Amino acid sequence: MTDFFFARSQMALSLAFHIVFAAIGIGMPLLMAIAEGLYLRRGEAIYLDLAKRWARGTAILFAVGAVSGTVLSFELGLLWPRFMEYAGGIIGMPFSLEGFAFFTEAIFLGIYLYGWDRTPPLMHWISGIIVAGSGMLSGVFVVTVNAWMNAPTGFEVTDGRVTSIDPIAAMLNPASLQQVIHMTLAAYVATGFIVAAVHAFFLLRDRRNVFHRRAFGIALAVAAVGIPFQIVSGDMIARMVAERQPAKFAAMEGHYRTQRGAPLTIGGLPDDAAMTTRYALRIPRGLSLLAHGDPTAPVRGLEDIPRDEWPNTRIVHWAFDLMVGAGFAMLGLAAWGAWLWWRRGLPDDPRFLRALVVAGPLGLIAIEAGWFVTEVGRQPWIIYGVMRTADAVTPMSGLVVPFVTFTAVYVFLSVILVYVLRRQFLETHPNAPGRSGAAPGASRGG
Fold this sequence. Notes:
This protein is mainly alpha-helical and about 450 residues long. It has one domain (about 1-160, about 170-425). About 70% of the residues lie in helices and about 5% in strands. The protein contains 13 helices and ten strands. The strands form five sheets. A two-stranded antiparallel ribbon has the order 1-2. The termini are far apart.
């Protein structure tokens, strides 16, 4: 049981570390391509400099993400061999396609970084778009695997063995569309907010710095456009979960009793023994409306689900509330920023900038909380309704040693990354505060 705990903990730690770089690896190339596109359209060298600065940051984060992603691929085989034996033939295609997208991203990122004076400007910009597109597709293929674990399709089981595998049907499982949209938007929103927060911090120190104003504007626009769609996609995925994973949905909402016109439960302390969520705010009929679009519809509670199939209700409920709360906080900030932008142009109200600096990490926090909901909420299943997590873990012992080792490695990588990125952001910018940037036609090299 102890080794089972460390196997799960090591996988959770690796996923929690890697998902930050996966999300930023999807979002940063988009910002980078937008900046260069604005340079090509407007001819303002400030955008070219911005694209170069973001490209260097993207390369740093890409390198760390490649390391943590490689660790995850080894952990799947070492810690979960029975899962890979059972599901390898089904999920092999999306993982192979993810590898193809990853190498495409790496190749074109190299072209982008070293091709400033070696390729025509339009072709160089297209290489940046390919980096953004392949980074997004890399995430899509991985998410389809996780979606399949939540809604397994595309195979049959004969005498306990997997047969009649249809990898395309497995990738296009009933959970894929909702999860792919939700995760892709989450990556763009989280990256937009965290980058906007960094540049807002520097704007608070120097409000006339054109470089940080332009960077802030691009990042905030991406975040503000994405967050309303993210909220809508969250509603879509909640309805899918209510239909296909009633135990996860009930745990998300702290909902124990099956009833019509079920209330929406916000906050509180789930109590499995008493079958209630104490001290919660309840919105009458809200859960029925959320799950089925009908305020009188019945919603299945945990009482109708076998006890050995319950996830950890407290973790799932609190993580879900944290994710939703962070999402609506970002929506409120985006609305505030849009209103300021409409009234005065690019928002530079110190109160808004300070709020954005504080709220900058909310997107990444929401992603982490969302993956807790997804993974812990599926327990005790590693493949929902097909294979239990306890049946998939490695039989080897002594997992505490690799757990401590990898924890130390991730801490070390985090410290190095923060140091390198801090040097990157604090690097003296050639455009002094208050200047509008170099003249069009400035050198693309650097």
